[in-house]
Amino acid sequence: MTTKETKTNDIVEELKHQIASFKDHASSEETGRVREVGDGIAKVSGLSKVGSMEMVEFEGGAMGFALNLEDDQVGVLILGDAKTIREGSRVKATGKILSVPVGKNVTGRVVDPLGRPKDDGGPIASKESYPVEKVAPRVMTRERVSQPLMTGIKAIDAMIPIGRGQRELIIGDRQTGKTAIAIDTILNQKGTGVHCVYVAIGQKESKVAKIVQRLRDEGAMEYTTIVIAGASDPAALQFIAPFAGCAISEWFMDQGEDTLIVYDDLSKHAVAYREASLLLRRPPGREAYPGDVFYLHSRLLERSARRNAEHGGGSITALPIIETQAGDVSAYIPTNVISITDGQIYLESDLFYKGIRPAVNVGLSVSRVGGDAQTKAMKKVAGQLRLDLAQFRELEAFSQFATDLDEATRTQIERGRRLVELLKQGQYEPMDLGHEIIAIFAVTKGHADKIDVAKITEWEKGLHSHVEANEVELLNMIRDRKALDEEIIQGIERVTKEWNATFSAAA
Known about the structure:
Blueprint: H1 3-20, E1 31-38, E2 41-45, E3 54-58, E4 63-69, E5 74-79, E6 90-97, E7 99-102, E8 110-111, E9 128-131, H2 154-159, E10 169-172, H3 178-187, E11 195-201, H4 205-217, E12 224-229, H5 235-254, E13 258-264, H6 266-279, H7 293-301, E14 315-323, H8 332-340, E15 343-347, H9 349-353, E16 366-367, H10 376-399, H11 407-422, H12 433-444, H13 456-470, H14 472-481, H15 486-506
Parallel strand pairs: 8-12, 10-14, 10-15, 11-12, 11-13, 13-14
Antiparallel strand pairs: 1-2, 1-6, 2-5, 3-4, 3-6, 4-5, 7-9, 15-16
Helix pairs in contact: 5-6, 7-8, 10-11, 10-12, 11-12, 12-14, 13-14, 13-15
């Protein structure tokens, strides 16, 4: 056989083999073209079957997601750098809804709203992802809020209690300590089994870096995830940041665990959404916000809930933050979020400048869950505390016009001044339940009436040290029983008298 015939036979055999192994793989993809691009927005034609929040891929590798679905075009928010996108560029629908990686591997990490690492920990090895937009738990899957989530802040735990599954708004002007309350609450979850997610929206990255460092120093990053869309990031990333953080929290809730999520802050989130909406030519409404800005926050915050035992029993507790301008809580976004949440912690600039920190205005702050989210011990001491403070405010205003006060009124005013001093608390100093109960009980029952007002803080710190050194069993009894029985009351009165004698002798 000639060499030529051999080559022909080889070719024939190869063709037969290829024909025998041929499989028909029909594939189709929906593509379109960019009609207009600019300011982080692309108008795309040809994507007739694309869905809302569906990811699209631009020629050159840039990603985006569909937000406006119109008759002849799709409005796409571009995620990241848009320099490679040009008019006429090819766009491909991915068929995937915008998602974020979830799971235990996200804990302790700093990520952007797409789940990409922003720390030095390397790629996130997560095999599971959740869509950033998700329907809130149905009414019949929920359970009433009844378990406390302790913040470690005396004024809040006593008078504005927060429960697991609650949505408690933190509202106030800039630089009044809103973020400080949220961070202290995260620090106080150490050892409680509560996972924490802190979402920074439009914040300076230097500020977030300080927060991350503080959490690391305190050992809180072991149970915390940071989601950051900084001030220099596109409006698209700032818009999806809280939804991405909520999706990360929902994974833990689905495992039957408790989660705390902080949105810092939703004012900047609304501004980012307004920017994107105006660029997409959506009709503006009040203060130029689009008409669905209320739905934007309601569908986010409604995802925070406590599930019943049949549906896993997990919970998401939300602490949204809103920044007001000159104390105006009647502005559009503050009133919207106030109406959605289960109460608010109102921080007042005047109190802050007077040195009362946290600057919580107890009169305007409220928790709509109330005593349901308090332990029996805290409920018992807090009732007297709120009453004493309310009477103090009235009597203090009255005493400015009266020269001659009776003994009972003077005693009430003096005790009120000591209560105000007691409720002052430094940043990054969350307090244990047992210590909170002992301090509040001692002052409300008059055990600090003879202590100089200027020395109340010193007296309180000494009391806690004295209890830690000599009465650990009493602390454990309060933590375990979570109620004030006669044995505990006698123990608190005894230890307070012992410390008062020591403190007075030292003075």
